[in-house]
Amino acid sequence: MIDRLRALARGRQAEDLAVQQVQRAGLQVLARNARFKGGELDLVALDGEQLVIIEVRARAVGRFGTAADSVTPTKQARLVRATQAWLQQQRCHQHRSIRFDVLAFDGDAPPQWIRHAFDVGGG
Q1: Would you state the pLDDT for residue 1?
Q2: By the 8 A CB rule, do 57 and 88 touch?
Q3: How far apart are the first and last CA of the chain?
Q4: What per-residue string of b and e applies to 59-68 under the rule 16 or more CB within 10 Å gives b?
Q5: Which of 74, 72, 32 is nearest to 53 (CA)?
Q6: For the chain, how big is the Rg over CA atoms in Å?
Q7: Strands ordered across the beta sheet of 50-59
Q8: Residue 27 and residue 35: Cα distance in Å, rounded?
Q9: What are phi and psi of 14, to 5 degrees?
Q10: Which long-range contacts (CB under 8 A, 24 or more apart) does 91-96 make?
Q11: Residue 6 to residues 10, 59, 60, 104, Cα–Cα distance (Å)
């Protein structure tokens, strides 16, 4: 139970830091923790005219791989489905190109922002 609470606190802190980093880079945050059946979008932002879906991952230690490694094909599919659901609610953004990024926090290392972390067939 204590470990789960620590993980949740670490995740919230990573998301707060991610928002700050994204805004410093000039992106406009449109949504945070948008939840849908089957998935959640940590951050949705605009980078100019491009819609950016940012998955925030945090790991205390790397014994199970890096935070970025945890964005598996299954997780990617959930992000795509959640993005589709978000776009159904936010029709004004349906015309935009979409980029999927990962902002990874591993222990005390500087965050790693992986732009274009994965592609979706033709997207």
Answers
A1: 67
A2: no
A3: 40
A4: beeeeeebbb
A5: 32
A6: 14
A7: 28-36, 39-47, 50-59, 98-106, 112-118
A8: 21
A9: -65, -40
A10: 93/30, 93/51, 96/46, 96/49, 96/50, 96/51
A11: 6, 11, 10, 17
User: Which neighbouring-strand residues pair with 58?
Assistant: 105
Q: Are 59 and 102 in contact (CB under 8 A)?
A: no
Tens digits of residue pLDDT in 40-91: 999 999 999 999 999 999 887 666 778 888 899 999 999 999 999 999 999 9
Other CB atoms closer than 10 Å to residue 94's CB: what's the count? 11
Per-residue CA distances from 75 to 83, 93, 100, 113, 117 (Å)? 12, 23, 12, 17, 12
Q: Which helix (H) or strand (E) holds 83?
A: helix 73-89
Res. 33 pLDDT band, cuts 50 70 90: very high
Side-chain half-sphere of 77: how many Cα atoms within 13 Å?
A: 4
Q: What domains appear along the chain, each with residue ranges and CATH number? A: 2-118 (3.40.1350.10)
Length of the chain: 123
